């Protein structure tokens, strides 16, 4: 086995893996809170994170997620024209005052939901995606189960007060992460501060004031009802690291923004996201009885990130562990060895080293031809 020790890691700020940190004492006034790093999904701070509470309009993160998934699958399109139903037009609470029979695009409805938290727009999207809101809510709950949102049950797509309409700070972070990871284009809506609908005749102003007043803010959704209090899933990105700060049951009104900023400031000041890259190219490995003589050893596209406290992000070393050769057949993505990142003897991350391509096994005929060629060459 080839073992290359003391190999210094070339670490580039960009992505990562972390350790849950509950020991920090942060001056939060809200009932529940959670801070998560997006790329790794690691929890950096948590407080009553599994308490099932009404989320108000933060619910709409799931509404938007299902809409974006419907767009990506080709079932609907941004330029689809939606005819507003009487039910959608009759929604109370925050709204953009859609009228029954009004025609509006999916693009505009997404803007209305993400910027102004329009309940009428959310229902119009739900009906366009699923036909009726009851079926859409069923899809919301199914998707929640798929994401591991064990504290959640949705009763509607808006977040208006309803029996057994609850989720948790942890579950909100899960669906926020899913939306940001797989639908990054949603930021084109969630980062809007002010805009218009209906050819500039109706003004929109973002309910998330952090978009204007917090450096690096990327979203995501606010919520308020008397029962839920002030809630927010606040996201921000700095130096390639995006954090998700969830606040639930905040009182008074400014508590959600204050607490969200406290969480984000803590995360950005304490942690850094690193992408592991070898200082030198990984070697090609000889392949026994292969259609090619060698196969490239590469790192996978995912799983090469490391989230660390900034105070522990220096003096990192690598150990590369690869065999002297491999036997055909070799499949692309097949694990060949490992690259281990350590600090002061503590293993921080072990990354599989994989095959960069397929190498088929020689047939009996190909083996015979190769042996004859070698014999002729040697002779």
What does this structure look like?
Helix content is 28%, strand content 30%. A hairpin with a 5-residue loop joins β13 (284-288) and β14. The chain has a 7-stranded mixed beta sheet with strand order 1-16-18-19-14-13-17, with no helix packed on it. Strands 4-3-11-10-9 form a 5-stranded antiparallel beta sheet, with helices on both faces. Strands 2-12-15 form a 3-stranded antiparallel beta sheet. The chain has 2 domains: 2-11 and 278-364, Sandwich (Peptidoglycan synthesis regulatory factor (PBP3), Domain 2); 32-273, DD-peptidase/beta-lactamase superfamily (Beta-lactamase, 3-Layer(aba) Sandwich). The protein has 379 residues and is an alpha+beta fold. The protein has helices spanning 60-72, 86-89, 106-116, 119-130, 133-146, 169-182, 187-190, 210-213, 255-270, 364-378, and strands at 2-8, 10-13, 32-37, 43-47, 81-83, 103-105, 194-197, 202-205, 217-225, 229-238, 241-250, 271-277, 284-288, 294-298, 305-309, 317-322, 326-327, 335-343, 346-355. 44% of the residues are buried. Mean pLDDT is 91; it is low at 1-22. It has 10 helices and 19 strands. α1 runs parallel beside α4, α1 runs parallel beside α6 (169-182) and α3 (106-116) packs antiparallel against α4 (119-130).
């Amino acid at each position: 086995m080839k073992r290359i020790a003391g190999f210094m890691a070339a670490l580039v700020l960009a992505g990562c893996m972390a350790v849950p940190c509950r020991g920090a004492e942060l001056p939060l006034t809200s009932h529940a809170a959670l801070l998560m790093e997006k790329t790794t999904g690691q929890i950096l701070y948590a407080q009553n994170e599994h308490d099932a509470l009404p989320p108000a309009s933060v619910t709409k993160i799931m509404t938007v997620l299902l809409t974006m998934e419907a767009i990506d699958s080709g079932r609907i399109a941004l330029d689809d024209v939606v005819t507003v139903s009487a039910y959608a037009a009759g929604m109370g609470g925050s709204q953009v005052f859609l009228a029954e029979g009004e025609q509006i695009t999916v693009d505009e409805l997404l803007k209305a939901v993400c910027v102004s938290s329009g309940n009428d727009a959310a229902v119009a999207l739900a009906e366009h995606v699923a036909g009726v809101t009851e079926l859409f809510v069923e899809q919301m709950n199914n998707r929640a189960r798929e994401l591991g949102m064990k504290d959640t049950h949705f009763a509607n797509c808006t977040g208006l007060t309803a029996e057994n309409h609850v989720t948790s700070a942890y579950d909100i972070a899960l669906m926020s992460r899913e939306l940001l990871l797989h639908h990054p284009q949603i930021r084109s809506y969630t980062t809007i501060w002010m805009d218009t609908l209906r050819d500039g005749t109706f003004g929109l102003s973002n309910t998330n004031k952090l978009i204007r007043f917090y450096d690096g803010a990327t979203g995501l959704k606010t919520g308020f009802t008397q029962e839920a209090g002030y809630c927010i899933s606040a996201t921000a990105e700095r130096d390639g690291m995006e954090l998700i700060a969830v606040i639930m049951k905040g009182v008074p009104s400014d508590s959600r923004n204050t607490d969200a900023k406290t969480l984000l400031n803590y995360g950005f000041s304490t942690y850094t996201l690193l992408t592991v890259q070898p200082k030198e190219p990984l070697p090609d490995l000889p392949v026994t009885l292969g259609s090619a003589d060698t196969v490239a050893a590469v790192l996978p596209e995912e799983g090469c990130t490391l989230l660390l406290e900034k105070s522990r992000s220096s003096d990192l070393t690598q150990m590369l562990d690869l065999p002297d050769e491999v036997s055909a057949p070799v499949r692309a993505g097949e694990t060949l060895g490992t690259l281990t990142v350590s600090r002061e003897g503590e293993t921080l991350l072990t990354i599989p080293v994989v095959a960069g391509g397929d190498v088929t096994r020689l047939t009996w005929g190909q083996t015979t031809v190769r042996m004859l060629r070698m014999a002729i060459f040697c002779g």
